Amino acid sequence: MTIRSIGLSVVGVSLVLVSSCAYLNTTQKNALGGGALGAGAGALIGHQTHHTAGGAAIGGALGALAGTVFGYQVQQQEERSAAQQSQINRQQREINKLKKEQAAGRSDDRY
After folding, report:
1. Do residues 40 and 6 touch, judged by C-beta distance below 8 A?
2. DSSP secondary structure letter of residue 75
3. CA distance 97 to 85
4. For the segment 19-30, what is each residue's pLDDT rounded down to a tens digit?
């Protein structure tokens, strides 16, 4: 198997994985992406030592692990940001409600 065919295979598998990731969370997407990139890099490096499959397996495992760790951190930050934005939205609604009540109170004072 040539390096070119290995590269094309990795690109093909990566495209399939990326297109099927619609229902995966951030951690899972990064684990798949890291695994695919790691497998591709491992295969290319392993090819130089005539251990393409072993290199792909090791690279895939390490890439998936790294992708999982990175994805987990990103997902945690996304969840914190979403919780903060939800709280900001709730507080803004409360502020708007109080402003309307205050404005209604002022208009009642005029009569």
Report:
1. yes
2. H
3. 18
4. 666 678 888 888
73 vs 26: CA distance, rounded Å: 9
Q: Are 26 and 79 in contact (CB under 8 A)?
A: no
For residue 105, give the amino acid letter. G
Which pLDDT score, from 0 to 100, does residue 108 have? 63
Instruction: Write out pLDDT tens, residues 30-40.
Output: 888 888 888 88
Q: In sequence order, what DSSP letters do the residues of 14-61 get, joined into one string?
A: HHHHHHT-TT--HHHHHHHHHHHHHHHHHHHHHHHTT-HHHHHHHHHH
Mean of the pLDDT values across residues 69-91? Answer: 95
C-alpha–C-alpha distance, residues 100 and 97, integer Å: 5
User: How far apart are the C-alpha atoms of 59 and 55, rounded to whole Å?
Assistant: 6
- How far CA 94 is from CA of 25, 82, 88, 105, in Å, comes to 32, 18, 10, 16
